[in-house]
Specification:
Elements (H helix, E strand, L loop, with lengths): L2 H13 L8 E3 L2 H5 L6 E18 L4 E9 L2 E6 L12 E13 L2 E5 L10 E4 L7 E2 L12 E14 L2 E8 L2 E5 L7 H8 L5 E10 L2 E11 L5 H6 L7 E3 L4 E2 L5 E5 L2 E5 L1
Parallel strand pairs: 1-2, 4-6, 8-9
Antiparallel strand pairs: 2-3, 2-5, 3-4, 5-6, 5-7, 9-10, 9-12, 10-11, 12-13, 14-15, 14-16, 16-17
C-alpha cells in the first residue's frame, strides 16, 4: 500500500471511530473549567465534596443538579442520572467522563451518552460543607460554589416579567433566584421586613451575570451580636477547601467560622 492510500485509509478509520483518538484528561476541576465548549474529558476528583444538590420535579420527569468543589475550584454538574443520589456533604474520589457545556455563560459538566457513569467514583457521605464568606462584588470569582453573604438587605424590584429579588449591600447587589430551599414567598417577606439577613447559596449565572440560588436565609439579630462575638472560641474548627478539619499547623487556604484565608 503506497503512502497516499495508507494516509487515506488511516484518516477514514479515525473518522469512523476505528482508531481511538487521544482522550482529554483533567486532573482537577480547574483544568476542566479551561476546556472549550463541547469538549469531552475524563475528570479526576480528589477529595472533592458535593456542596449542594437539587432534584427538580418537572411533572413527567426529573432533573438532577449537583455542585462539587475540590481544592482547585467548583463545578456545576447537570442532570446525570448516575449521580442522582449524591447529596451535599458527599466526598467524591475517582474519575468520571463528562462533556464541557457552556450554558448562559456557565460552564457545566454534562452527560455523555454511553460514557458517563459513576463506576469510577467512590462516594462517602458525612463530610462537612462550609460556605465561602465573600462580598457581593466577589461572587463571580466563586462560580458554582457555595457562598455566604453577610448583612444583606433583600430588596424587591419590579420588571416586565414580575418581581425579582436582590441581595443588596454597600458594595453592590446580586439577584436571588428562588430555585432551591428559599422560596419566592420567603424573599417577599424579607424584602418588606426592614431587617438584615445572612444568605447562603450557590453561585450561578444567567446570560453572563452572576446570581445566587439561596439555600438559607437567616435574619441577623442586632441585639447581642457583640456578646456572641466576644464569647466565640478563637480556636474554632478550621477546615481546608475540601471540608476536612485540619490542625493549627496546616498550611494553605483554610476556612474558619465561614471566612477563607491563607495560613503560612
Amino acid at each position: 500500500m503506497n503512502k497516499i492510500l495508507r494516509s487515506f485509509f488511516v484518516a477514514a478509520m479515525v473518522m469512523c471511530g476505528m482508531i481511538a483518538q487521544a482522550q482529554t484528561k483533567c486532573s482537577n476541576i480547574a483544568e476542566f473549567l479551561k476546556l472549550a465548549d463541547k469538549t469531552e474529558a475524563e475528570l479526576t476528583l480528589k477529595d472533592a465534596i458535593a456542596v449542594a444538590d437539587l432534584t427538580e420535579d418537572k411533572g413527567t420527569y426529573q432533573t438532577y443538579h449537583l455542585w462539587v468543589r475540590d481544592a482547585s475550584g467548583a463545578l456545576y454538574i447537570y442532570n446525570i442520572n448516575a449521580l442522582k443520589d449524591v447529596k451535599a456533604g458527599t466526598k467524591l474520589n475517582g474519575s468520571i467522563m463528562l462533556k464541557m457545556s457552556i450554558y448562559n455563560g456557565l460552564p457545566e459538566g454534562a452527560y455523555l451518552k454511553g460514557k458517563t457513569s459513576a463506576d469510577g467514583l467512590t462516594m462517602e457521605p458525612g463530610a462537612t460543607v462550609e460556605p465561602l464568606t465573600c462580598k457581593v462584588s466577589e461572587i463571580a470569582d466563586h462560580m458554582s460554589d457555595l457562598v455566604q453573604l453577610n448583612t444583606v438587605e433583600v430588596v424587591a424590584v419590579e420588571s416586565t416579567n414580575g418581581t425579582n429579588y436582590y441581595a443588596k449591600t454597600g458594595d453592590g447587589q446580586t439577584q436571588l433566584f428562588p430555585k432551591m430551599d428559599v422560596k419566592k414567598k420567603n424573599l417577599a417577606a424579607a424584602s418588606t421586613s426592614g431587617k438584615k439577613y445572612t444568605v447562603v447559596g450557590v453561585v450561578s449565572s444567567y446570560k453572563g451575570t452572576a446570581q445566587i440560588y439561596p439555600i438559607k436565609l437567616t435574619e441577623e439579630v442586632t441585639a447581642g451580636i457583640s456578646a456572641v462575638a466576644a464569647g466565640q472560641d478563637p480556636d474554632a474548627p478550621i477546615y481546608n477547601l475540601n471540608g476536612q478539619q485540619v490542625g493549627t499547623d496546616y498550611k494553605g487556604v483554610v476556612i474558619q467560622k465561614g471566612k477563607k484565608f491563607v495560613r503560612k
